[in-house]
């Protein structure tokens, strides 16, 4: 058994959460807006240190992180290449003037990012969070298409800032500010492939419909327009991540490309979760047959630093006028030198085999889970969906409907045993695994065992 922090199996030295996490929760309750962190008797643990696939909490408990902290730490927590780049950059320049006198690190990052894109002339707007990259993409698509209307999908998650929230579909996120959200966004059901084993039974998964039905609705919308005007933008995740790990069917992606050509639509691929190796390739769009005009990336990009990007070919991005001295879309921390240095290190990893490693580990985890849960999968109590190292297990009732809250219940059981996982899906029926691509064979085997145990306890 490995003895190095980063490659350990869970080591719990107190009940979870331990006394220090409880004490920190009390302090936090007194100073943070109450909506932000969910505080309960059995949740959360407060992180003190992380390396590779391990996290140590304030009580000294060691966890295996199967979330990569919202999908970010694909190269592992504190990947040595990222740490070295940060140390070197911190010794020279921490903050610059991103859109005025730019740091040299910004140029190197943008060149490396352009080299990974499907166009020879990629142009980028750098941002700090995923939501901001989506804001930049929605503005760019509006300018480029010349039309205000937006098509998005049920179950889609694009962020919580006002512009991106208009494209995010979940009612509870939207409700507090519903009247402030741009009304020209129409959410279509997410298309599901009805081929055996492909996507799951239509109609039982909330917010989904069969590919042909969604296309028919799209066509009607292209004729009628949205309440904000004619449709110019379609924003879609190649695999809905927080929506429950639902890949976009190839047939839909192909039909969308044909309509985009015919109607001059701008397709925005939100690859904030799926991009930069997570799905076993630099981008997930080609894997589902999506041919985007704009790509948003984030999460993995900054190696743990806040960094995201909206990238498009010149024919799309040049809808923005050339700067006349005042950038029309920028921010104080655009092109932050530390984030750019970390991002450059991450992109070298992505170009150098990180995606292939994610693909291999994904296969190992999925084949282990398929074998361990074969009877439940056969009985339609569990649906396993995945692309690369983005894996979702949807837990279902005996009648095949997704079992609300089951993903959260399984995640709770696993936390108590030293495993960090998150639920996903509109009703929390999905257990989402998005681990770092540094899990050892021993960690993979143990992960399969603990997922199996926790799932069987939830579905007796
Ligand atoms: C697909 C997708 N888009 C956008 C976002 C928003 O990113 P952020 O939380 O960094 O604003 C997320 C976050 O999970 C995401 O998964």
UniProtKB/TrEMBL annotation:
Species in which this protein is naturally found: Gaopeijia maritima
List UniProt keywords, sorted A-Z: Aminotransferase, Pyridoxal phosphate, Transferase
Tell me which family the UniProt entry assigns to this protein: Belongs to the class-III pyridoxal-phosphate-dependent aminotransferase family.
User: What GO molecular function terms would the record report?
Assistant: transaminase activity
| Regions that span the bilayer | none
- Protein name, as recorded: Aminotransferase class III-fold pyridoxal phosphate-dependent enzyme
Q: Which Pfam families match?
A: Aminotran_3 (PF00202)
Look up the record and name the cofactor or cofactors this protein needs.
pyridoxal 5'-phosphate
| InterPro entries from the UniProt entry | Aminotrans_3 (IPR005814), Aminotrans_3_PPA_site (IPR049704), Class-III_PLP-dep_AT (IPR050103), PyrdxlP-dep_Trfase (IPR015424), PyrdxlP-dep_Trfase_major (IPR015421), PyrdxlP-dep_Trfase_small (IPR015422)
- Indicate whether Iron-sulfur appears among the record's keywords: no
């Amino acid at each position: 058994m490995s003895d190095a922090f980063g490659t350990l199996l869970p080591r719990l030295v107190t009940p979870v959460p331990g006394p220090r996490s409880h004490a920190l929760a009390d302090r936090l309750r007194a100073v943070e807006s109450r909506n932000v962190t969910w505080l309960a008797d059995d949740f959360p643990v407060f992180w003190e240190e992380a390396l590779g696939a391990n996290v140590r909490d304030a009580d000294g408990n060691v966890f295996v992180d199967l979330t990569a902290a919202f999908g970010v730490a694909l190269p592992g927590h504190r990947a040595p290449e990222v740490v070295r780049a940060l140390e070197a950059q911190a010794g020279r320049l921490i903050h610059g003037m991103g859109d005025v006198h730019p740091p040299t690190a910004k140029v190197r990052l943008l060149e490396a990012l352009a080299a990974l894109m499907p166009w020879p002339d990629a142009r980028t707007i750098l941002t700090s969070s995923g939501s901001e990259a989506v804001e930049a993409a929605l503005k760019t698509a509006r300018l480029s298409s010349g039309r205000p209307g937006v098509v998005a999908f049920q179950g889609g998650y694009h962020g919580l800032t006002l512009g991106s929230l208009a494209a995010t579909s979940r009612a509870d996120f939207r409700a507090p500010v519903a009247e402030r959200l741009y009304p020209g966004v129409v959410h279509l059901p997410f298309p599901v492939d009805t081929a055996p084993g492909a996507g799951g039974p239509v109609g039982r998964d909330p917010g989904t419909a069969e590919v042909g039905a969604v296309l028919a609705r799209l066509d009607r919308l292209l004729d009628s327009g949205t309440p904000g005007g004619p449709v110019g933008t379609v924003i879609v995740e190649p695999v809905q991540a927080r929506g429950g790990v639902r890949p976009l069917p190839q047939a839909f992606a192909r039909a969308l490309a044909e309509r985009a050509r015919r109607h001059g639509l701008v397709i925005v691929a939100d690859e904030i979760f799926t991009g930069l190796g997570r799905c076993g390739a630099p981008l997930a769009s080609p894997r589902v047959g999506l041919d985007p005009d704009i790509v948003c990336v984030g999460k993995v990009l900054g190696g743990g630093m806040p960094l995201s990007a909206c990238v498009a070919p010149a024919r799309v991005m040049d809808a923005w006028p050339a700067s006349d001295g005042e950038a029309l879309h920028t921010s104080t921390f655009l092109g932050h030198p530390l984030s750019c240095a970390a991002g450059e290190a991450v992109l070298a990893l992505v170009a150098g085999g990180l995606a292939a490693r994610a693909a291999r580990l994904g296969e190992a985890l999925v084949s282990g889970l398929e074998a361990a849960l074969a009877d439940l999968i056969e009985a339609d109590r569990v649906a396993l969906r995945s692309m690369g190292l983005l894996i979702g297990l949807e837990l279902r009732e005996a009648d095949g409907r997704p079992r609300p809250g089951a993903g959260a219940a399984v995640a709770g059981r696993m936390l108590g045993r030293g495993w960090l996982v998150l639920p996903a899906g509109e009703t929390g029926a999905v257990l989402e695994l998005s681990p770092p691509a540094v899990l050892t064979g021993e960690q993979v085997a143990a992960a399969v065992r603990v997922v199996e145990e926790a799932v069987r306890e939830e579905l007796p």
